[in-house]
Automatic annotation (TrEMBL):
Signal peptide: 1-28
UniProt keyword Signal present: yes
Organism classification: Eukaryota, Fungi, Dikarya, Ascomycota, Pezizomycotina
Region feature Disordered, mapped onto this chain: 354-385
FAS1 domain residues: 32-176, 180-309
Name this protein carries in UniProt: FAS1 domain-containing protein
Provenance organism: Cercophora newfieldiana
Amino acid sequence: MLSSLPSPRATFSAVAAMLVFAPAFSHAQHAVRDLASVLAVQEEMVTFRALVKRFPDVFSGFPKEGVTIIAPNDFAFSKVGNWGHKTTEATEAALKYHVITTPINTGSIGKGNSMIAATTLTDPAFTNVTGGQQLILTKQPGGEVVLTSGFATRGTIVVEDIAFDGGIVQIVDSVMRVPETLESTARNAYTDLTAFLGALHRTHIADEILTAKDVTILAPRNAAFQQLAGVLSHTTPSDLRRILHYHIVPDLVLHSWELQNGSFLVSAEQSRTMEITRLGNYIFVNSAQFLQTDILLSNGLVQMVDNILSPDHTDARPDITATAQLPVLTPSGATATGTKAPIPFTSDLPCTSDCPETETFDAKAPRPTGAPASPPTPDSAPSRNSGLVGIGLGVCLAAGALVVGI
Ligand SMILES: *[C@@H]1O[C@H](CO)[C@@H](O)[C@H](O)[C@H]1NC(C)=O
Ligand SMILES: *[C@@H]1O[C@H](CO)[C@@H](O)[C@H](O)[C@H]1NC(C)=O
């Protein structure tokens, strides 16, 4: 009986043990503090801390499994001067885009790999992607994790894997931008897609895309349209519609890393298919090469390709010996072709309020002179430029000058 009583020495040991473990215990407590406390000890987080306080609903009520908070630092906010001028709804939507619905540890992403992360932004006024608008996380070969959002806005995680009681915080050096429509993305960020956008307007497919959910769009760059300016000028409206529909994969958001060699995509043009070919780091759809991958849209994504696809050439495959692929449509006609040709279809872009009302396109107007009628050559220098070049007014004014009879 006596032996079951703790001896003074045993009691001392227990106290000592508590003292020894006390710091470790309180350290564990730190690891599960709430979001505000976790952010309070991080430097350069003044703006985000204030937003967390101002929008408590965005930053609470998380699922048991936890979320990932993408927390931009003050430097990130300093790069986007007008951020505070958004409406309350837009600010709330933008913040929801910074909350990933699952806890993601940077260690779980393999080097060189990309993954999609769904966010809590599900409001159809801001997104038409099933399951929540997405961010792309990519671990660079060097180990740093880069996030990609709308308008090619990227940020690097600068403080990784901070635990809080609702999951994980990742501090980034850029504010993530909610992906926008194809219209806005082509006009404001990826201006190399304006011919494609204009062609979609010409054929009224632009409206179909605007209301679609979960689409993948294979969008040829402007040079592909310039190269075929001659043949496109003789293409009937119904053939042009067929061609453009063949560039749309409905009901699937297909990220580049998910596209398997030899797999087929089903297009909106009578379900005609396209085949994916992977050769080293290059990806082809039929014989067109991917130039810019995974451009996020409010309702899916765009893969920018170097040539126009044709529903009548579904068997076109890349010539692996060539530095650039030839168009599947045969260039023809007297219209200027090549990179010096005016960019087709830009006159079909609806003008914004800045546009001069008087600019109307006269199909019988003489074509611009000075553009050589030399045979087209494949543009062997793919444009890598995707800079955030605002065009807006520029495109509308240029449309008057660049008009070509197509
Ligand atoms: C989502 O789709 C609806 C129509 O289905 C449309 O009215 C809305 O503008 C779309 N939202 C975005 C962000 O594109
Ligand atoms: C993809 O398939 C083609 C044709 O079968 C083959 O030549 C090529 O090596 C494959 N690429 C990869 C990355 O396996």
